[in-house]
Write a structure and sequence with these properties.
alpha+beta, five-stranded antiparallel beta sheet, SH3 type barrels, disordered N terminus
């Protein structure tokens, strides 16, 4: 992550991040501050803005720098690039449609298991009836 001197004063490199990550892998996030080229991107001018505030992406990897600073590797969708970001530079974006894929999948699994259990009970009851003398 690249900073100007003003930005460096806002987020101290010596600040220890929370013990547990604030964001999770695959989570949709929005960048709050511009990402500038610190010279590590040879295809852009030094100090050029690589990603504007408000850009959205997904957390691709979570790592640590100096064992105290958490870096989130975020793939920015529109820009098509991945950059490292600090927790203070990101905010979570809740799904706009409110659709919870995990809950939907769990619901389907529970229903499927219940149906399979009923089928098994019916087959067991049917085989017991067939085995009984009339």
């Amino acid at each position: 992550m690249e900073f100007t001197h003003a930005q460096a004063n806002q987020i101290s490199a010596s600040t220890k991040d929370e013990i547990l990550p604030v964001f999770r892998l695959g989570q949709r996030v929005r960048i709050l501050k511009p990402i500038r080229n610190d010279g590590s991107n040879p295809f852009e001018a030094p100090d050029a803005i690589l990603v504007q505030p408000g850009a959205e992406g997904y957390v691709k990897h979570i790592g640590d720098w100096l064992q105290v600073i958490r870096i989130y590797e975020v793939h920015f969708i529109e820009e098509g690039h991945t950059y490292g970001c600090r927790e203070a530079e990101l905010e979570a974006i809740e799904d706009l449609d409110g659709y919870d894929e995990v809950e939907e999948e769990l619901k389907w699994l529970r229903e499927h298991r219940a149906n399979k259990s009923k089928e098994k009970e019916n087959l067991s009851a049917q085989s017991q009836k067939e085995g009984e003398p009339s």
